[in-house]
Amino acid sequence: MFLWQYLSSLLLIAVHICEAQECDQMKRLNLAHAFIGTSLRIRLVLYTRENVTCGTLVSHTDLSAYPHFNLSRPTTFIIHGYRPTGSIPTWMQDFIELMLVRIDTNVVVVDWNYGATNLNYFKSVENTQGAADNLTAFIETMQKHGASLSSIHMIGISLGAHISGFVGANLNGSIGRITALDPAGPQFTGSPPQDRLDSSDAQFVDVLHTDIDSLGYREPLGHIDFYANGGTDQPGCPKTIFSGSSYFKCDHQRSVLLFLGSVNQTCVIRAFPCSSYTDFLDGKCQSCDQFGAAGCPVFGYDVTRWKDTLLRLRQTKTFFSTNSKSPFCSTSYRVDVMIWNMNNHRGYMTIKLHSNGTEAVATIDHKSSEFMKYTETKLFAQFDKDIQSVEKVSVMFSAGDVFKPKFKLRVLRIRLTHLELKETALCRYDILLEEKTEVTFRPIPCEESNF
Ligand SMILES: *[C@@H]1O[C@H](CO)[C@@H](O)[C@H](O)[C@H]1NC(C)=O
Ligand SMILES: *[C@@H]1O[C@H](CO)[C@@H](O)[C@H](O)[C@H]1NC(C)=O
Ligand SMILES: *[C@@H]1O[C@H](CO)[C@@H](O)[C@H](O)[C@H]1NC(C)=O
Ligand SMILES: *[C@@H]1O[C@H](CO)[C@@H](O)[C@H](O)[C@H]1NC(C)=O
Ligand SMILES: *[C@@H]1O[C@H](CO)[C@@H](O)[C@H](O)[C@H]1NC(C)=O
Ligand SMILES: *[C@@H]1O[C@H](CO)[C@@H](O)[C@H](O)[C@H]1NC(C)=O
């Protein structure tokens, strides 16, 4: 009897301890919800450095109950997009943790899974304005408790990007920053600024496009718009429908992975202002003069370093290329080639850089390049790795013409210039490139001569 009482009180204590440590997170829904459809309900889940892995569900009106929701700190909202199956985004916990490693902020996950989960995309779109109005009221409550609008950063993914825009417009554009990760296109493309995200929605709006031909938005929407790999197809993503659901979401989701890489400072991705991806690949957009000593903007979390210039320029469209896997950053070189063959020749080039057993590869094949006698042909080579102290270089030329007999490109000079370290150009003079045969050489310092 006594033993029983003793045990049951122990059990009660245990239950209390469990309750105290219970963590909240975004609500997991399922396909049944998606079939029936869900109506809008907004949950706000708070994470801080004191509580990185354990979320706290926050009241919309009474903030006094959460001592660790310190409004002297900045606040970062993460706003997810359409959830066709009701699942929690796979990147969510990484996102929270990487943000908190990077900056002492309140991370508030805006869980509108009730509202976003629906087999019918258009129903989810209908909920974006309501979600924004609800969030606006919450931010106004934060303001009453001492938060400043300029210390608020909203990061919106897909539909979440437009929700961020609506919230920003409700608050007259005075929140500090909106980062839009592949803002949704369907139902928003072509609509007027008040019906979508635009650059007047926050003091600074930065936008990444990764799937403009399908789920994303094609036109620029912010002060700076980044088009990763042209914004259409991302390397490493499946190109056919036989790959299942990743065929639909891989390009779109890549926006989150690229942004997280920048939060994690995995590597630096320089973005070049350009009017089109073709011009970018042709190497026509390497001038960064308008940004002075800072150089061209770096994609991602740290682009705020360029904020003043970007605001002055009003709208800047930029491009960069990436690798297919993390770390996504590639290393850019300008390659100048001069030949002395009598006739002009078109072809493709593959270049490898070697150093101490590692190898970086760049293939320049988006279109054939034209080589002309005694004229410098400027190529843009993006290597999958950054190689320090290049020991050897391999070059292979291919004319893409299977019928002609083996042809030789007579190279008078090839010069490779690292775009970040311009002072250390690598050269080689007088090499013979037999078609489809790799030629390897040791580069030497370039001579300051003009041919
Ligand atoms: C926001 O949504 C929550 C839950 O869906 C609700 O409790 C709250 O009253 C809403 N606030 C406003 C201002 O609509
Ligand atoms: C962390 O979150 C849990 C659950 O909401 C809460 O009980 C606990 O007090 C929080 N810890 C801190 C240090 O705020
Ligand atoms: C709230 O954050 C500010 C700024 O980081 C800090 O100075 C202050 O001590 C914090 N207050 C509490 C109660 O933790
Ligand atoms: C935004 O502007 C409207 C109309 O001028 C005003 O009523 C409202 O209080 C302003 N809100 C903020 C957050 O400045
Ligand atoms: C963050 O960077 C570290 C290396 O600096 C890497 O090991 C880790 O996988 C990265 N995390 C994510 C989520 O990218
Ligand atoms: C070259 O690589 C080897 C092993 O991979 C390493 O031990 C050595 O320190 C490297 N040398 C240089 C100069 O990086």
From TrEMBL:
It is found in: Cell membrane; Secreted. Keywords: Calcium, Cell membrane, Disulfide bond, Glycoprotein, Hydrolase, Lipid degradation, Lipid metabolism, Membrane, Metal-binding, Secreted, Signal. One of its GO terms (biological process) is phosphatidic acid biosynthetic process. This is Putative lipase member H-like. Hydrolyzes specifically phosphatidic acid (PA) to produce 2-acyl lysophosphatidic acid (LPA; a potent bioactive lipid mediator) and fatty acid. Does not hydrolyze other phospholipids, like phosphatidylserine (PS), phosphatidylcholine (PC) and phosphatidylethanolamine (PE) or triacylglycerol (TG). Transmembrane segments: none annotated. Belongs to the AB hydrolase superfamily. Lipase family. Its main location: membrane. It catalyses: 1-hexadecanoyl-2-(9Z-octadecenoyl)-sn-glycero-3-phosphate + H2O = 2-(9Z-octadecenoyl)-sn-glycero-3-phosphate + hexadecanoate + H(+). It holds the Pfam family Lipase. Ca(2+) binds at residues 196, 198, 201. InterPro entries: AB_hydrolase_fold, Lipase, Lipase_LIPH, Lipase_N, TAG_lipase. It is a peripheral membrane protein. One of its GO terms (cellular component) is plasma membrane. Residues 1-20 form the signal peptide. It comes from Scophthalmus maximus (Turbot).
